[in-house]
Specification:
globular, mainly alpha, disordered N terminus
Length: about 200
Amino acid sequence: MTETARQRPDWQTWPNLITLFRLLLIPVFVLLVVARHPGWALVALVVIGVSDWADGFVARRFDQGSKLGKAIDPVADRLAIIAIVLSLVLVGLLPLFVVIVVVAVDLVLAVLSSALFHGNPDLDVTWTGKIRSALLFVGLPVLLFSAVHTVDENAPWVRIVALVFVYLGTAGHVLAGAQYAVAMVRKRRAVAPAA
């Protein structure tokens, strides 16, 4: 009850500001990758990854969770992943099928969400989703790091390790997508009698 007494708008929180910053940094990262500046792109990617952790930490630590944050945080994560894998495909670091799988899963979830809920289904993030994001946010920066000239020449195994993480993360993306789809259907069935 004391939380509602703050009279703070739902959107006006530090976690939402951090998420907005992450969204603005995504096109910067893409431009750096396409312009063949893997070092600076790696810095931008690390900041994107840290901000993904930071908004959740701040929301929990300072009790600044919000409906808007719950809605835009997963959207920011998905946009970041799609933009990152697409830019790495464009410069030849990643196979095209990874983008196809990631985009296909997100499209199915978007269509399902729109059909069943006309928008955001307000679902909690699953552990599979968190592990998927962690694998991708480790594998993708390492893959980018492998493109740095000295690493590419002296440690080609770094790219192999990075691809293992990315492929595991991609498989996790499919599994997490299936879990979200099932959760959406179950939630819709639960609320259908009351509708």
